[in-house]
Design goal:
Blueprint lengths: L1 E6 L10 H9 L2 E4 L5 H4 L7 E4 L5 H13 L3 E6 L9 H10 L3 E5 L4 H8 L13 E5 L7 H6 L3 E5 L5 H10 L7 E6 L7 E6 L3 H4 L7 E5 L6 H4 L4 E3 L2 E5 L1
Parallel strand pairs: 1-4, 1-5, 2-3, 2-4, 6-7
Antiparallel strand pairs: 7-10, 8-9, 8-10, 9-12, 11-12
Length: about 240
């Protein structure tokens, strides 16, 4: 009995690992997240059981994985990014182990670094940022004082809807209003969209960006114009369609 927790990568289906793709192609059951590209789901065998996780709560997902795992089927739990980076993969692994089911974890390329990189933003860069902090953006109880004091890069997952509160919280805690900021939607994909501005203006500049989106705040965002794709500038903010 075994279940594989597989990271699908940050969006572009070509960025899945070779091991992850091979497991999908050999699976008998595929339980996949909404953000997983349809190209990867289509790699499952024609007779595989496909379960779209969208609309199913976490307890139900856990039960499905245990039930299919106990049947002795080759089960793949396919997650966006990496299973252990805001993917609840640790929770699922613990449930499966408690049920006596072997777990294989296949890491994926995390959006944390890959999505900013696709926009020309290195999360660390000599002279600009020697550290980076990953934050779950929809958390209502963020420690803005600690985050504002961070000398490195801040990367917020799932924070697009909370962006006005995030920006206001950082500004109130002393983060400089001119700190470069970016919002990236559909990162690494052909329809990637990036908005860059300064912290004081990023919420307004990115108001129309689709969700989910990744937020990057820090001096490294200033490199986007030099490293990233060609940009079209609009006043204080820059909006790119890649």
């Amino acid at each position: 009995m075994s279940v594989a927790l597989v990271g699908a990568g940050p969006g572009d289906p070509d960025l899945i690992t070779c091991r992850g793709l091979r497991l999908i192609q050999q699976c008998q059951v595929l339980v996949y997240d909404r953000l997983v590209g349809p190209e990867l789901v289509a790699e499952a065998p024609l007779d595989a059981i496909l379960v779209d996780r969208d609309g199913i709560d976490q307890d139900e997902v856990n039960d499905l994985l245990v039930d299919y795992g106990r049947l002795g089927l080759r089960v793949v739990r396919l997650k966006g990014g990496d299973p252990f980076v805001f993917g609840r993969g640790g929770e699922e692994a613990l449930v499966l182990r408690d049920a006596g089911i072997e777990v294989e974890v296949v890491s994926g390329v995390s959006s944390f670094a890959a999505v900013p990189a696709a926009a020309g933003i290195p999360v660390t860069h000599r002279g600009l940022a020697q550290e980076a902090t990953i934050v779950m953006g929809h958390d209502a109880d963020l420690d803005f004082a600690r985050l504002a004091a961070s000398p490195g890069t801040l990367v917020f997952f799932m924070g697009a809807r909370s962006l006005p509160c995030i920006a206001a919280g950082l500004l109130a805690a002393g983060k400089h209003p001119d700190t470069p900021a970016a919002v990236i939607a559909n990162g690494t994909r052909s329809d990637q969209e990036v908005v860059t501005s300064v912290l004081a203006e990023i919420a307004e500049a990115a108001a129309a960006v689709p969700t989910p989106a990744l937020i990057v705040i820090g001096e490294v965002v200033s490199l986007a114009g030099a490293i990233g794709p060609a940009q079209r500038h609009y006043g204080a903010a820059a909006r790119l369609l890649v």
